[in-house]
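Write out this protein's structure.
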Amino acid sequence: MISSLKLSILLSAMAQVESGGNPHAFNYYEQAYGLLQIREQALQDVNKYRLQSYQLEDAFDPDNARDIAAHYLRIWCPVANRYSFEDAARIYNGGPDGWWKLSTLKYWYRVKTELEHRGLDSRDTILETQHNPTQTWQPQLTNPLPAAPSLSTPGTTVVFSLPSGRATPSRFVLNVNAETVQLSPSFTFTIKPSAPKPAPQPASPPPTSAPAKTPAPAVVFELHWNDTR
């Protein structure tokens, strides 16, 4: 869910970039109005998809300008499924697909600088903060997990399937035996089992005792991700 507070934080930084904080700003060349330099196309989208009835002159009111900009981002960020401060700012600057346009990077760098000057985290999102954003998933394997003895052989490859609707592998951190493993783009990794700890040897083992056997190392998988949906 989009956070009104975080959206307000982002829009405040964007207003400084758009108009220098001037609610009466008007760009004749781009026909952009007010604090957040509202344009005709953005206004049409807001009126159509959010059932509003704003006029361009309404953008000279700072509260209206913020509301129009917030409506615009509430339309297009979910459509693009992009919620970071960066993506939201670039969508505002370059339209619904502005998040991937190279032409919007310069705008984002200016907004990013403004956020950081205010001591804010430019890597944040416009989503509600979750109490426990880091989650653990015991992953399902697309091929059977090898039997424990074979895990002691380096080179075994395991392939994971993503949980439905989750992010790309680059946003996941996999721990194997409490060690971080780098996932490949195809979401696979090669098992490197931890060396088993030698069993303690008694100083004077009884003659009837059988030699202590080193157990096969247990392999524990944990997959963590930051869920920003």
